[in-house]
Amino acid sequence: MRAGHGIRWRIVWILFFSTAINYINRQTLSLLAPVISSELHFSHEDLSRIFGSFQLAYAWTWLIGGLLLDLIGARWGLSLAVIWWSAASILTGFANSVASFSFYRFLLGIGEGFNWPGASKVVAEWFPARERGLAVAIFDSGSSVGAAIAALTIPLISLALGWRRAFTVSGLLGLVWLAFWWKNYYPRDQHPKLSAEEAAIIDDGVDRSIQKEPFLVVLRRLWKNPNAWGILLGRSLTDPMWWFYVFWLPQYLSDARGFSLKQIAAFAWIPFVAADLGNFTGGWVSGLLIRCGVPVIRARKWVCVVTCVPMLAGIPAVLVHSPFWAVFLICIALWGYAAWSTMGLTFPSDLFDQRVVGTVTGFSGFGAGMAGTAVTLAVGYIVDRFSYMPAFLFVSFLPVLATVSVLGLIRQNRPAAR
């Protein structure tokens, strides 16, 4: 590949690594929760409050982060976010109580909430519509890869160095990433190595003569736009399922399936590899349909309809006797989720002008984060008083409602709210 001809792909792979590091930092606590809760005598409700504090900050930062990224740009916005969340991860290793864990995880959520609005904004800026599904799949798959890497390594680091040192190791990764980001990413119209040929590919089908309107005018239009509500409801009704597995899978394997920390390291990574395959499945299939002449939004919707079905596999997962069959069925559910989620993250750049993609993505992430917070708190309450079964049933049915919302509200196949 000649110099200046693959810059957009280099950038999206750097975003893949920021997402992976984001999830390594995030998953450290979830993976060590069985050890920490045993040592510090935390109940499931205590854990839900700690997890919920992260989600609450994360939700608000998706909202505010989207607005800030549209104002200051992704170069500075993501740089500051990575520094912030790396520091918060390291500080978590000093926590000793529910309050201190909650505080440090709240700080982590503030930083990590910038990653997806920023990455979505960059994809809208650097990719034509026909490539966005794959580009989103690439950076979003970092969540699955990061979660899998964390599941493989964090328990072993804890066994070797202690659980507190594990937070330090995961926190330092973001600072390494920062050097690559500053060397390779600039806004599209300022990149010193962008060739005319690649710029023409990026601009294919995009009208860049549109003038940006006042921000309050844009907000009013988004409020009245059914596409924005379809994106918001779609994310809000699917993401709680992801949060459930991200936060509670290691604890579930320990509580209900009797897994040790070594067994968690051996098996908890597998569902996230399945999710990684789901990211690429969704992006590849939607791109194939578009190349075959299917309209962009119709192609994305077809992927959502088909992939909401395997997400129901979480229901038999909690019912089967064999822990290995349970893990397999959870793999199926997360594969479906990740394919669906890739479409959910691609809709903003398909339907809205790139100048407000960060804002639209931020609003949808805020709704998803608040819904995820409510579900996380409810899971702790339910598990302490009943079992994991009602939680599995609830989070498995939500994506069906999400798909209905997307089919009913998202209709427009051209940039909106310009």
Helix content: over 70%
> Which CATH top level class fits?
Mainly Alpha
Classified in CATH, the superfamily is MFS general substrate transporter like domains
Indicate the low-confidence ranges by residue numbers: 414-418
* Number of strand segments: 0
Order of helices and strands: HHHHHHHHHHHHHHHHH
CATH fold naming: Growth Hormone, Chain: A
The best one-word shape is: globular
Biggest sheet features: none
Radius of gyration from the CA trace? 20 Å
Helical stretch tally: 17
Terminal-residue CA separation: 35 Å
In the CATH hierarchy, what is the architecture at level 2? Up-down Bundle
Number of domains: 1
Fraction in beta strands? under 5%
Average pLDDT figure: 86
Alpha-beta classification: mainly alpha
Question: How would you describe the overall organization of this protein?
Answer:
With 418 residues, the protein is an all-alpha fold. It has a single domain (14-187, 198-203, 218-409), classed as Growth Hormone, Chain: A (Up-down Bundle), CATH 1.20.1250. The chain contains 17 helices and no strands. It has helices at residues 7-40, 44-72, 74-92, 98-112, 115-126, 129-161, 163-184, 196-202, 215-224, 226-255, 261-267, 270-291, 296-307, 314-319, 323-351, 357-385, 389-409.
